[in-house]
Specification:
The chain is of the alpha+beta class. Helix content is 37%, strand content 18%.
Length: 279
């Protein structure tokens, strides 16, 4: 059973902040006009909406059916299938809503000092029991971000890295102090992205690669870059030395707001164990 590290119990950040800390983002021109929004994008979106709806309907129809007697295990499996399908639909709807807010410049952002290690812990836990390696050095400065949005960005990037990572080679998350900014690297050893396609990969309704392990409407990277930029950060792809893709998030550092003796955060192939704090 998966567990959280000490000190990473999660409560949704309070939104009762002074109005001066709230930021309205400018219209995100990078995602406001793109080829994927045409017929091909609409077809992909329609398919991704129909699939979870059809799966949920089939599961609920099975529960209501009186033709075949169901055991408690059968009912549990059908309920789990319906729940998973509706969760997928909810995530898709939330992504589309956030994308539209980014395009219109109406997404509210609440940047404030935060501890990057704590955000990483929650994000890795949200991803599930898949193996992930995390190395965050001790004494890393705090960051100025919207913690909820930053967590979503990390979840999206780690999810992408997991889909493309070879079996037995989990993604790696590392962080470093860049003098006034903090970088988070999400590293995988998958097929990578050709340099000529890097910009296209961040457009909505685009897919990374062409494998059966990459389902979805292709909003993750577009949203991740838009959310990162809304917090005053950047998100850039790099080639992983030896092959693969490294996503580099750079956000403002919060000097003097995080404890200088922040412990090292280490998790090697975390399945099913959680993260470990050293120090």
């Amino acid at each position: 059973m998966r567990y959280r590290a000490i000190g990473c119990g999660y409560t949704s950040p309070a939104r009762r902040l002074d109005a001066r800390t709230q930021t309205r983002v400018r219209p995100a021109s990078r995602v406001s006009s793109h080829p994927g929004s045409g017929p091909a994008g609409a077809a992909t979106l329609g398919h991704d909406l129909r699939s979870p709806l059809a799966a949920a309907k089939a599961a609920l129809s099975g529960l209501r059916s009186t033709d075949i007697p169901l055991t408690e295990d059968d009912r549990g499996e059908l309920l789990a299938a319906a729940d998973e399908s509706l969760d997928r639909l909810a995530r898709l709807a939330a992504g589309l809503l956030d994308l539209s807010r980014l395009q219109a410049g109406k997404l509210s952002v609440f940047p404030r000092p935060a501890v990057l290690g704590d955000i990483i812990e929650r994000a890795v836990d949200d991803v599930g029991p898949q193996p992930v390696t995390v190395r965050v050095p001790a004494g890393l400065p705090g960051v100025v971000v919207d913690p909820e949005l930053m967590e979503r960005v990390i979840v999206n990037l780690v999810g992408n890295a997991l889909r493309y990572s070879p079996a037995g080679t989990p993604p790696l998350l590392t962080a470093r102090d860049r003098g006034g900014r903090v970088e988070l690297h999400v590293v995988d050893r998958g097929p990578g992205i050709p340099r000529t396609e890097c910009d296209q990969a961040f457009l909505p309704f685009q897919q990374l690669g062409h494998t059966s392990r990459s389902p979805g409407v292709g909003l993750g990277l577009a949203l991740s870059r838009g959310l990162t930029e809304a917090m005053g950060g950047t998100l850039q792809p790099q080639e992983t030395p030896g092959g693969g893709l490294t996503m580099v998030i750079s956000v403002p550092a919060a000097r003097g707001t995080a404890p200088a003796d922040a412990p090292e955060l280490v998790a090697v192939d975390t399945m099913p164990a959680g993260l470990v704090r050293n120090g």
